[in-house]
Amino acid sequence: MADTTIRIGIIGCAEIARKVSRAILLAPNATLSAVASRTIDKAANFAKANGFPPEAKIHGSYVSLLDDPDIDAVYLPLPTSLHLKWAVLTAKKKKHVLIEKPVALNVAELDQILKACEENGVQFMDGTMWVHHPRTQKMKEFLNDKELFGQLKTVSSFCCFLANPQFLQNNIRVKPDLDALGALGDVGWYGIRSILWAADYELPTTVTAMRGPVYNEAGVIIDCGASLHWEDGKTATFHCSFISNRTMDVVAIGTYGTLRLSDFIIPYQQHEASYTTSTKVGFNELATEWVPPPSEHTVTIELPQEAWMVREFAGLVENIKKNGAQPDKKWPEISRKTQLVMDAVMASIKKGFEPVEIVSLCV
Q1: What is the mean pLDDT of residues 329-350?
Q2: Does the pLDDT at position 87 exceed 80?
Q3: What pLDDT shows up at residue 359?
Q4: Which of 2, 159, 206, 297 has the fewest CB atoms within 10 Å distance of its CB?
């Protein structure tokens, strides 16, 4: 094993941890070093089922893994209600933090996590995978092109899937004591992030929840949406749902161009992903077809996007560990802005769908 390989431990055996375990195995600068669960049998079974290397350690408690001196970083796929406790403790144990989204129940909790990370000099990153895909950078180049795209005017984002009745009754993501943000925290997080990404992470001035959110029997949101507004006139909307057909669309419209994609959270295929752009389009003389037609662009990659995420995270940790660098503030700042907008949506719902002003405090 190379000296620069980052040793990652996983706390919790959630379904998403299977995907990230594979990503750690695929990333060239990281290795699966340990897993912890509340029982050692569950941790051992998870390691066996997910191809952990034979030297990986099996822990029957979370604290045991955090006390392991051979772990550089920890991936936390725990329910959101547990993030504050375990992310803060992870940071205090000088372990770098890769944490599932939503990162916290509210920005006050997130600020405590980020404070612990900053005080202990550890890197923080949330588990939003699609932003690390090389396609995302290519799309950003189009959005930044003043000739082809112009100035951003509006964004629409849709993040939905049709959950079965068992999910809506029993899944962690609809339990008020585990993931009280429901669909807003789970898939709405992606919609908010996509809008902020298109807007260069400029926070909106106001956020207004759409009327008619849907709740399950426990009072957790399973369908909702919101509109965002900026001082310069930009607007955006997103819709998230556990009760609608699977949709992962983003449309960004500028003065001259339009970006469209329909699989932004998880590409249709692991190793290639496409998007469509159009610029200064019109019609032919009889208005029977578009001129010029939209262009489709395909980005081919060797590693899936979750492995790109792990590679980015491990690279930052390596720079801290090897070179004494400071943690990259970009990722905690982006997480915090996403959380602020999510908080504003919840506040708008509670205020009868009135606009809520975004208040941004420096991390």
Answers
A1: 98
A2: yes
A3: 75
A4: 2
Q: What is the mean pLDDT of the chain?
A: 96
Cα separation of 58 and 64, whole Å?
9
The Cα 320–Cα 121 span in angstroms is: 8
Ramachandran quadrant class, 125 (left: phi over 0; alpha: psi -120 to 50; beta: rest): beta
What percent of the chain has pLDDT above 90?
97
CA distances from 206 to 26, 79, 229, 231 (A): 41, 29, 5, 9
Q: Residue 363 above 70 pLDDT? A: no
Token pair of 348, please? 């708008």
Helix axis angle for 189-198 and 330-350, nearest 10°, is 120
pLDDT of residue 360: 47
Told to judge if 234 belongs to the known catalytic residues of this protein, a careful annotator would answer: no
pLDDT at residue 3, as a whole number: 62
CA–CA gap between residue 104 and residue 343 (Å, rounded): 10
| Catalytic residue of the set 57, 95, 101, 337 | 101
Residue with the two structure tokens 């569950």: 42
β-bridge mates for residue 297, sequence order? 275
Residues shown for the chain: 363
Overall pTM surpassing 0.85 (yes/no): yes
CB 138 within 8 A of CB 299: yes
Residue 312: its pLDDT value, please? Answer: 98
